[in-house]
């Protein structure tokens, strides 16, 4: 679900327009801005208690970046995962 939040463009879901990653605010921006947008997207998810760490990797040829994320969940242990975000 959390990877889906980062792979969904904010505003794309007509039933939940606040769900997703704001690719328009992150497009072409430095890693700090991408990190901020990842944190915003994940903190809006009900299952996330806190976003503990976001590591943004260099962009590839397709204008995307790999991110490594560690979150604390509301119910249960923490979770780490990798995702690709468009920027």
Structure characterization notes:
The chain has 87 residues and is an alpha+beta fold. Helices cover 26% and strands 34% of the residues. The protein contains three helices and three strands, in the order H-H-H-E-E-E. Strands 1-2-3 form a three-stranded antiparallel sheet. The radius of gyration is 12 Å and the shape is globular.
In angstroms, what is the radius of gyration?
12 Å
Q: What is the total tally of β strands? A: 3
Tell me roughly what share of residues is in helical segments: 25-40%
Distance between the termini: 20 Å
Total count of helical runs of at least 4 residues: 3
Classify the oligomer: single chain
Major sheet characteristics: 3 strands, antiparallel
Strand content: 25-35%
Read across the widest sheet, the strand sequence of neighbours is: 1-2-3
Pick out the low-confidence regions.
none
Which of globular, elongated, flat, extended, rod-shaped describes the shape?
globular
Topology:
Layout: H1 2-7, H2 23-26, H3 31-43, E1 48-59, E2 64-73, E3 79-86
Antiparallel strand pairs: 1-2, 2-3
